[in-house]
Amino acid sequence: MPRCPRDMDEGPVDLRTRPKAGAPDSEATLPLRKRRYREPQESPGPGIVPAPEPSPQSPSTYPGLPGPATAIYYPGPFLYPAPAPFSVLSLPPPTYPVLCPLENPLTADIAKATRPDEDGDTPLHIAVAQGNLLAVHRLVHLFQQGGRDLDVYNNLRQTPLHLAVITTLPSVVRLLVSKGANPMALDRNGQTAAHLACEHRSSSCLRALLETSAPGVLSLEARNYEGLTPLHVAVNTEDRETVLLLLDRGADIDAVDIKSGRSPLIHAVENNSLAMVQLLLQHGANVNAQMYSGSSALHSASGRGLLPLVRTLVRSGADSSLKNCHNDTPLMVARNRRVIDILRGKASRPSPQPTLGPTEPSQEGSTPISPEGSSQFGSSGPPSASPASSSPPRSPPEDPPTSLQGPQIFFLPTQSPTAFLPYTGPLRAPGRPVPPSPAPGGS
User: From start to end residue, where is composition biased (Low complexity) (predicted)?
Assistant: First the structure.
């Protein structure tokens, strides 16, 4: 008898958590207790008395907590509806609710509200992750009734406040902080709720933390396990609104991370973020701040060849002669010629001039020399000025020599064509060798 394939032999399967084939719901892979609450559609079976509808004055039943569906929670004593015999016997229920013993139901509800699952998540974690504000209110009330701490950690070392910041729920953040949640609780990376708000670019959650926390409780200089403050994290994420909010609340703009000593300005330079560099410089950041190795922001920008950042730092007063631990200045670590020019005080390096052709005029504005030009050579001697010059000279003429001694050598410019001159002396022109002179006393 053929055996089943290996992938089909799954053993016992829990049909409650197994995803259905072709189910479009993305929550099908989650356990039933972690899915979003949906109102039941089926009608109650025979013999089951449905719970009475809550009055408009009292809030509705909390849907996320396991337990009897007939319980009605409200701030105050826990009152349950009338017992079933009134409905079974078709008798009108009493006008007042029947007061049940308060100790046992409240203890059971608190135990169910604070019991973690296999992932360490309590019903409060799940309600916050789902964004169910009403359930969060009820669960927070149960935590307070039982004297439990709201900063309960799951297996990922996340508190409900951490989840509220990650899911960007400022109203839940305000509720949890106002009810006693600690904003300085650390997650597995050593980050506080302020770090997480800056990491997820949530200025609304950061504002809720700053406005709701008691004075002196939330520290903006706390470091995570990477040694970064919330301002470092906000600069690395390039969130302008979060950076401005931190600076307005008194965050240290020159705070250094405890691993390398980099300031937020140096982090912005290494991220090649010109907008963050300009924002920090406008708010008074120290442009010559040095890290533990002695390098400044100008060292980092010069070594990376970041021309706009180098220009911005130099204009803001960065010291180009500052030395690091290796006695290197920003000029010594620069590899880009344009960066070197900026550090030396030059605006830009002039581009090389193209070589002029034989018929193009030179940059000095002089015209090419030709045999028919402004000066002509005589048939047997030195040149003589021609009265019929084609164009007047652009510069004042020099005084002619009074006497000529020895053979004269004329150097023609490379722009003019080669001229053949009737001159007895040696001729030196481009492209023609110089004939050897006869030995003295020879023929």
Answer: 370-392
pLDDT of residue 107: 84
pLDDT of residue 282: 95
Flag whether 259 is in a domain: yes
Which CATH number goes with the domain that contains 303?
1.25.40.20
Q: What is the pLDDT of residue 345?
A: 82
- The residue range of the domain holding 274 is 253-349
Per DSSP, what are the bridge partners of residue 432? 429
Query: Does residue 291 contact residue 257 with C-beta atoms inside 8 Å?
Result: no
Tell me, yes or no, whether 342 lies in a domain. Answer: yes
Burial (0-12, 13-18, 19+ Cβ within 10 Å), 244 = middle
Q: What type of residue sits at position 142?
A: L
The arithmetic mean of pLDDT across residues 199-215, rounded, is 94
Tokens linked to 11: 């053993």
Which tens digits make up the pLDDT trace of 209-230? Answer: 999 999 889 999 999 999 999 9
How far is residue 238's CA from residue 148's CA, in Å, rounded to a whole number? 38
Q: CA 49, 52, 58 angle in degrees (round to 5)?
A: 155
**Helices and strands of the chain, counted as H and E runs:** 16, 2
pLDDT for 377 equals: 42
Upper half-sphere CA count for residue 357 (Cβ side, 13 Å): 2
The strand pairing partners of 80, in sequence order, are: 98
**Are 135 and 64 contacting, i.e. CB atoms less than 8 angstroms apart?**
yes
Type of residue at 342: I
> What is the mean pLDDT of the segment spanning 332-356?
73
Q: How many domains are there within the chain?
A: 1
Calculate the CA dihedral of residues 56, 57, 63, 65 and round it to 10 degrees. -160
Distance CA 72, CA 52 (A): 10
d(CA 172, CA 196): 15
| Terminal alpha carbon distance of the chain | 125
**180: amino acid identity, one letter:** G
Residue type at 6?
R
Give the CA radius of gyration of the chain: 44
Q: Of residues 379 and 91, which shows the higher confidence score?
A: 91
**What is the three-class DSSP state of 262?**
coil
Least confident of 141-150, 200-209, 268-277, 360-369: 360-369
8 A C-beta contact, residue 310 and residue 342: yes
Helices 103-114 and 133-145: angle between axes, nearest 10 degrees: 120
Q: How confident is the model at residue 108 (pLDDT cuts 50, 70, 90)?
A: confident
Does residue 208 lie within any of the structural domains? no
Q: Is 60 inside any structural domain?
A: no
Among 71-75, 145-149, 265-269, which is the least confidently predicted range? Answer: 71-75
